[in-house]
Amino acid sequence: MRAMGLILVSVLGLCVAACGSGQASGSGSRADTLATDAANAFLKTYTTDGGRIQRTDQGGDTVGEGQAYGMLAAAAVGNEQSFNEIWTWTRQHMMNSDGLLAFRWTGGKVVDRTPAADADLDAARALLVASCRFGRSDLRSAAIRIGDAVLALETARAGSGDVLLAGPWANMRSYLVLDPSYVDPTTLNALARVTGNAQFSAVAEDSSRLVENLMAPLPPDWAVVKTAGGQSTPVSGPDATSGPGMFTYDAPRALVRLAVNADAAARSAEARAWSSFKATRPQDIVAEHQLSGAAVGNLHHPITLVGAAGAAKAIGDESAMTTLLNVAGELDKQHPTYYGGAWVALGRLLLTTDRLQPCT
Predict the structure, then answer these.
(1) Tens of pLDDT along 123-173?
(2) How many other CB atoms are there within 10 angstroms of residue 123's CB atom?
(3) What is the pLDDT of residues 60-70, one digit of tens each?
(4) Per annotation, catalytic residue among 49, 61, 85, 118
(5) I want to staple 254 with a disulfide (CB 3.0 to 4.6 A). Which of 8, 163, 181, 298 is the partner?
(6) Cis omega before residue 336 (within 30°)?
(7) Angstrom distance (rounded) from CA 73 to CA 126
């Protein structure tokens, strides 16, 4: 959705133990098996020959986000051949000269080169995980190059804080466009550690606080941030400057990203979000909501269940998290989609295992 001078040999050796050990984080080996099965299913279903991740339910096109999802899945399960194919295809077909990923490829060519920050950060994370899992310094260097480009082209100052932009296009000078679901504090902090550049951590902290402040109690798909004072406001879309804002197909990812290693402020925000779901049977949770938590329409999608699972995880309700992830998986089996399959896999990997924990 639009709508991711070091002593490398010794560092990489340490990282093998530090990232992606594959142990489930509190749910036992069953959780790890379910996570790797979901990741392998995504790769098998949506990877074409040559390493292209195709959105089969959206005309067979490819987006930068999808390539990053494939790289994350392959790195998580330790499939180096699949990772190499996806990363090679991404470099050859989706990588812009500035180091960021193009948005969309179809009909044999890129038709929209505009980057999206979630694809860039997800790709950087995948490269960091793969660098230690496969013992390869070249992947670490590639992650740093993407990270540096994110910092240079996809961040901006608003008030006293640093904001992760939705993409390079999102700096409108008087205001910035923010997609809360793009903010990934884990990846940004990992980039701070591997580069020694504390600005990554500043972006992680400041942008996370913006997202938490926007949650009322649910986060919006889109928001704008005034550059003069840093005030943030939900809006109705990426091109809008007003509107009530909605929680639909982007925003649930914010609940997952903030749930991983959540601090006290994130847990408080997640607890508010959880109030919108806890009294509803997982099977009855619809895809679209007002920011107040009121349900809209009768459509269902796995991404909403995975987002709710993130909120449950953040407040320590592992049982509810497990149930929500199971129902999300069943829903995707009944009505398979590229996006649903990706987030069933990523939700399990991020919330129940440490397989996508970047090198430290």
Answers:
(1) 999 999 999 999 999 999 999 999 999 999 999 999 999 999 999 999 999
(2) 32
(3) 999 999 999 99
(4) 118
(5) 181
(6) no
(7) 8
Residue 211 to residue 266: CA distance in whole angstroms:
9
Confirm whether 354 is a catalytic residue. no
Q: Which of the residue ranges 14-28, 105-119, 152-166, 271-285 would you say has the lowest mean pLDDT?
A: 14-28
CA 39 distance to own-chain centroid: 15
For residue 57, CA distances in Å to 46, 335, 344 come to: 10, 10, 16
CA nearest neighbour of 93 among 120, 119, 113: 113
pLDDT the model gives residue 194: 97
- Helix (H) and strand (E) counts for the chain? 13, 11
Q: Return d(Cα 147, Cα 350) in angstroms, integer.
A: 20
Does the annotation count 65 as an active-site position?
Answer: yes
Virtual CA dihedral for 72, 75, 81, 86, nearest 10 degrees?
20
Q: Distance between CA 116 and CA 66 in Å, rounded?
A: 12
| 225 in Cβ contact with 176 (< 8 Å) | yes
d(CA 346, CA 163): 24
Q: What is the pTM of this model?
A: 0.93
How many Å is the Cα radius of gyration of the chain? 19
| Residue 359 confidence class, pLDDT cut points 50, 70, 90 | confident
Q: What is the pLDDT of residues 202-218, one digit of tens each?
A: 999 999 999 999 999 99
Catalytic position from the list 65, 179, 221, 354: 65
Ramachandran angles phi, psi of 184, nearest 5°:
-125, 90
